[in-house]
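Hi,

I'm pasting everything inline rather than attaching a file, because the server keeps stripping attachments. The sequence lines come first, and each chain or strand is labelled.
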Amino acid sequence: MEVNYDNGLNLKATELRLGLPGSDEPERQTTPRSNKRTLSEISSSGVTDDGNDYQQDSAPPAKEQVVGWPPIRSYRKNCIHATGRYVKVSVDGAAYLRKIDLKVYRSYPDLLKALENMFKLTIGAYSEREGYNGSGYAPTYEDKDGDWMLVGDVPWEMFISSCKRLRIMKGSEARGLGCV
Amino acid sequence: MESFELKRSKDSVNSDQSAHWSSFPDEVLERVLSRLKSHRDRSSASLVCKDWYHAERWSRTNVFIGNCYSVSQEIVVRRFSRIRSVTLKGKPRFSDFNLVPENWGANIHAWLVVFAAKYPFLEELRLKRMAINDQSLEFLAVSFPNFKALSLLSCDGFSTNGLAAIATHCKNLTELDIQENDIDDIGGSWLSCFPESFTSLEVLNFANLTSDINFDALEKLVGRCKSMRVLKLNRSVSLEQLQRLLVNAPRLAELGTGSFSQELIVREYEELESALSNCKNMHTLSGLWDAKGIYLPALYPACTHLTFLNLSYAALQSLELAKLLPHRRRLKHLWVLDTVEDKGLEAVGLNCPLLEELRVFPADPFDDEIVHGVTDAGFVAVSFGCPRLHYVLYFCRQMTNAAVATIVQNCPDFTHFRLCIMNPGQPDHLTNEPMDEAFGAVVKTCTKLQRLSVSGRLTDRTFEYIGRYAKNLETLSVAFAGSSDWGMQCVLGGCPKLRKLEIRDCPFGNAALLSGLEKYESMRSLWMSACNVTMNGCRLLAREMPRLNIEVMKEDGSDDSQADKVYVYRSIAGPRRDAPRSVLTL
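And the predicted assembly:
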């Protein structure tokens, strides 16, 4: 780490950023961590501008991404995410979660219809401007970066490969997302 | 496999004693020795006496160099003058998991330049973990008119342009096997570089290329190479395209399909099934990306003679595997993803009595929240049904000492036992104890064990067992294990046949490192990273053992005195001169 003492100040040390000190080593993988972001955190802090992920304090060592572990060759890693994508689905107010295989669906309408059937609710149609306004529910998902997104914004293939879990939010909370 | 009864004369060779041997004409000796294929047998033969040494080196056509830095190009070409085939291995194995810095070395180019001068009739080049760029591939393609076989495994530094050069210039090519490399995949047009007159290809493997290939060119190529017996496609090839290829290549012995999930109408499905069942010689099947359960029955008629089935890219569920297996009673080698779960492995145990090798890969290795996958139960189920099992690679999230003890009791012939409990330092799932007794059972029962990878929570006890019982062990991999220097000392003090030792994230320090002084000269290499070894310890080792190369890789921002990554290997070429700045040679 460079230390710039030109004007007697160690500017790097006083640099403001999110993340644990020393957490910008080049060798740390940037694959998804298990940070769960609640919606209240999203609306208050927003996504950081410089792209640093918000890290939880004192992440237990077992959950920390260790370089080269488990020992899987990189060409296998590239295949893994695209083989059968089981993700958890939660619905606000429902007692327990379900799991679905994203690979089974071919498009957003396909997926949304299945969700409606599974949970006996109406999600309605997606519009780029207004999201799912007009129905009682909004489907959201957590992507690889740990951010919560509205289902339907990105192309289907991109969604399939980046979706980690789904959450169907109740209408009242969902309205806020349309403005983010 | 041939082996020689080697009788050393009791006294050292002198003209009186050697009369018995030197009456053997050189030509006869060379003829006899030329039938020796095994490298170890040849090595042994060359040590008998001077005559045998020379006869061996003149008759050798295939040289295997397990560590490219253990010997220099000059030494190789001086000793062997008639080489047709070279196998070279470069980087330490942990480079596969990103533990070795970029530009570490193992560049093939200097070797190619020397070979072009001394072995102009070179026919085969097989590289593993070497760095090779497009210019080198082009140089290779134009320098060796008889060149026949190129195999690149886990290499990096080249792009599909390099493959284009090979396709363009190698008129006698029979084998192009590009597996699991870090390739800059610019596009599939390299396939169209094979000239229209080119018909000799027998082996073509481009399974790990990611981009779309020029299917038209591929179809024509397969159509005119009538001797093709191995064809491994990449994911971009669809089911319909596969069917068209198979119609022209019914003699395939090994097939790697492309993506196995296209929407097919009935007629197309039947055509595919028919094309597959016409491949009467097929004994190896792989690929099967995105395989959908509904299309798997198309494989049933084709697979009755299969001995090797690689399903590690197909996320099959347990039922799908259970339906596929009853027709595969001849299976000897099976690779699967852990999506098949324990139930799928039960089906393996029930249907594959001849199974010798099982590899279970994790579908989601980096996600702790996934609770499925395979456990101790699946492995135990396989062991009951497959007594001939001798090679296993098993990724799981839980294991018990009792299960492993049962497994090795059922399958005492293990030669390769690689168990990866994915959470570092995880104890026995039921008793919460360390997994020491599990590996103790393995080394005590499996006397033929050559390769062992350990995992889970392990104390020095595990290494006491290994040092004491693993008499045939050649390769040992250790991660997040051990309690003190004593553990590593036990291994170095025992294990008479140890050749490769790779250790990461263990509490072994200088005392352990230095306890293996003489041992390292009988080993190919030692790797230690994220342990407690210091620069001073390494310097001491370097001073005591001048015939070893000691290389230290420092990480940015680490303590000056720590030796973050240490790579020790024997060499008759002296320290290498091509190390990058991040690698210190002591």
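Chain A touches chain B through 33 residues (CB under 8 Å).

If the labels don't parse on your end, tell me and I'll reformat.
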